[in-house]
Write a structure and sequence with these properties.
It is a single chain. The protein is of the alpha+beta class. The protein folds into 4 domains: about 190 residues, 2-Layer Sandwich (Beta-Lactamase); about 100 residues, PAS domain (Beta-Lactamase); about 180 residues, 3-Layer(aba) Sandwich (Rossmann fold), CATH 3.40.50.300; about 130 residues, Helicase, Ruva Protein, domain 3 (Orthogonal Bundle). It is about 40% helix and about 20% strand. The protein contains 25 helices and 24 strands. It has a 6-stranded antiparallel β-sheet with strand order 9-8-13-12-11-10. The chain has a 5-stranded antiparallel β-sheet with strand order 3-2-7-6-5, sandwiched between helices. Strands 15-18-21-14-22 form a 5-stranded parallel β-sheet. α3 runs antiparallel to α7 and α24 crosses α25. It is elongated.
Length: about 650
């Protein structure tokens, strides 16, 4: 039975007897033969140091050094060294752990040492030059005994004409031999050769550098590239601006040296998609609200590191608001009117727009409070930021809190995975319009007051304090002073809101504006229907002026739309108006003077009769919310 020999036995057999084992690698076999013919002493104890002009190879060293460092960052701490040699096999630069560097120094494996095959016999550096191929030499495959405690992986470096100009080598303990080591060396050599080609054309290098810098720096997102242990390799301008860092404060540092919270573990290849985090920096203790993504980077199935992108939450909200059209569409020049009492209020609103104070818009339903709020926003210095509106009376009390303040994942049954920002967060930097503020519950008023005072929100189910910069415009058709007396509205919140009150007059007090509004609405309706503008008879306008308009402008628009849809002629006459205009006008013209509350009561009764008790349709007809309709039914004891 044939016994398999060890490498040591194979080497000793050749050295002492000159016999080659048939199991020997052909490349090693041929190199051993050459080494013996050249008279290499296999028992020499130290490498040969030869003079060398290092300046001659400065360009090669400069180009190779970053790749050597990158390669060493992968093998660091495992007893390996990375080195670059010239075309003769002389060592130019060595990077490694302290222990292997000490061992290498003992055998003369240092800068300027000649590690060619002619000097030291079979080894990865010298033999790879001879065969002009990448090569890995392990333990006793080395011809000289002083090299046999090492495993070495080397690959020749070529210029653009294919000439060998150097060798990249990785050496380490023989027990850590791995085929992937040679693969990494070859990949690095290819990168070095590519850089050498660029080095031959200075203009091309500058152009490429500018292009790469522009590509990363023109990305709207903050970007980092880190290696497998969290070292920052690349940081673009956006992340430097966000964190207010200089170049030397980011690159070549570990991520956890920069970030204090949260404890981010990026030393894995797990993908992260759109995770909301609060980053706290170690130096400044400042928080940054961001969305983070992490994409692992692979080469030949080897994980090299990760690309991390950060989106500042303010920019994310801005994008969401643009996508969802959370913006104000009305400007002051869009608002129609010339009645002195109304124009006085418009001027008050324009003055309010120039401040950052809270505005409280008062007035009956349908008087255009939301339009005034939009115009104030668009006239303010927040015009290019979000305008978000929420109807405090149209959302169930239990849901209003989550709508305003947001919630964390798992805060309640049915809470969306990942949680959701509230209207305060989405309106950050802009304006939040709280319509029907008088409908808000006392519990919610307490929370709202806290946000107005502290300019911070805490999501439902969460603990993180989120700073918000939001301008509040509130609106109501209630008399909040009366509500304060009744105990249904907090006095401290009222004073917080009532900084710049604007009370809009009802349409019945703006009779001179009715012809202007009729012309505008009719023209707009006809444009939408692709119909010519009809002639409007004076009696038609007069009848509308006589009407009391309990639903105000919203009711006017409703009636005009119904009239235009039913009209088949090119003229609008008094006979085209619906019956309720006559009925309600008669109420006004009768000898019995009806006060404002009686008019409201009669309009509710009429709407209920008109739609056979359908409250949704009746409320829509009058242009008011269902909750308001219910409240007024209760107030006027209408069954």
């Amino acid at each position: 039975m044939k016994i398999q020999k060890t490498f040591k036995e194979v080497w000793e057999q050749f050295i002492y007897e000159g016999t080659l084992d048939e199991s020997l690698n052909p490349i090693v076999r041929d190199s051993w033969i050459r080494s013996k013919k050249m008279g290499i002493n296999p028992f020499r104890s130290y490498g040969e140091i030869k003079p060398i002009d290092m300046n001659q190879y400065s360009y090669l060293i400069d180009i190779a050094t970053p790749f050597m460092k990158s390669l060493f960052s992968i093998v660091k701490g495992s007893g390996f060294m990375v080195l670059i040699c010239n075309e003769k096999g002389q060592l130019l630069k060595v990077i490694g752990d302290s222990e292997p560097l000490k061992m290498a120094k003992k055998i003369g494996f240092i800068e300027k040492a000649d590690w060619s095959e002619q000097s030291i016999g079979t080894n990865a550096i010298g033999t790879s030059i001879v065969i002009n191929k990448p090569l890995q030499i392990v333990a006793e495959e080395h011809y000289t005994k002083i090299c046999q405690t090492w495993t070495c992986s080397a690959a020749p470096i070529h210029d653009s004409k294919g000439k060998i100009i150097g060798v990249l080598n990785v050496s380490g303990p023989r027990e850590y031999v791995h085929l992937h080591t040679l693969g990494m060396v070859v990949s690095s050599v290819k990168a070095i050769e590519y850089q050498l080609k660029l080095h031959e054309n200075t203009h091309q290098i500058l152009r490429m550098q500018k292009f790469l810098e522009a590509a990363t720096n023109n990305i709207d997102e903050c970007m980092l590239i880190i290696d497998t242990v969290g070292n920052i390799i690349i940081a673009n301008d956006q992340i430097k601006k966000l964190f207010q860092f200089q170049d030397d404060q980011l690159v070549h540092k570990k991520l956890n040296e920069i970030i204090l919270e949260p404890p981010l573990d990026f030393s894995n290849h797990i993908r992260i998609m759109n995770k909301e985090i609060y980053i706290k920096l170690k130096d400044t203790q400042k928080y940054y609200h961001c969305i983070v993504n992490k994409v692992p980077i692979y080469q030949n199935r080897n994980w090299l590191g990760s690309m991390i992108t950060l989106k500042e939450m303010k920019k994310v909200r801005h994008f969401i608001n643009n996508l969802t059209d959370n913006r104000a569409k009305i400007n002051f020049h869009d608002i129609i009117g010339q009645t002195p009492s109304f124009m006085k209020k418009i001027n008050e609103a324009k003055l309010a727009a120039k401040t950052s104070s809270t505005v409280l818009i008062l007035g009956e339903s349908g008087t255009g409070k939301d339009m005034i709020a939009q115009a104030i926003h668009n006239e303010s210095d927040r015009w290019n930021k979000p305008f978000i509106s929420i109807n405090c009376g149209g959302i169930p009390r239990d849901l209003l809190g989550s709508e305003l303040f947001g919630y964390e994942e798992g805060a309640f049954t049915g809470a969306k995975k990942g949680g959701s920002p509230g209207k305060f967060e989405l309106a950050d930097g802009g304006t939040l319009f709280l319509d029907e503020i008088g409908e808000m519950s006392l519990e919610m008023q307490v929370l709202l007051l806290r946000v107005l005072q502290d300019k911070e929100v805490i999501r439902i189910g969460g603990q993180k304090v989120i700073p918000v910069d939001v301008r509040i415009i509130a609106a109501t058709n209630r008399n909040l002073r009366d509500e304060v007396k009744k105990g249904s509205f907090r006095e401290d919140l009222f004073f917080r809101l009532n900084v710049m009150p604007i009370e809009l007059p009802p349409l019945r007090e703006r009779q001179t504006d009715i012809p202007l509004l009729v012309d505008f609405f009719v023209r707009k309706l006809c444009e939408n229907l692709s119909r010519p503008m009809p002639t409007i008879e004076p009696e038609f306008i007069q009848k509308l002026i006589q009407y009391s308009w309990p639903g105000n402008i919203r009711e006017l628009q409703n009636i005009l739309e119904r009239t235009i849809n039913k009209n088949t002629k090119n003229t609008l006459t008094v006979h085209d108006l619906p019956d309720e205009i006559y009925e309600k006008s008669h109420l006004k013209d009768s000898t019995v003077t009806l006060n404002r509350h009686e008019l409201k009561k009669q309009s509710i009764i009429h709407a209920l009769n008109l739609f056979n008790g359908n409250i949704s349709k009746a409320a829509k007809y009058l242009g008011i919310a269902r909750s308001t309709f219910y409240r007024q039914m209760k107030k006027y004891q209408i069954q």
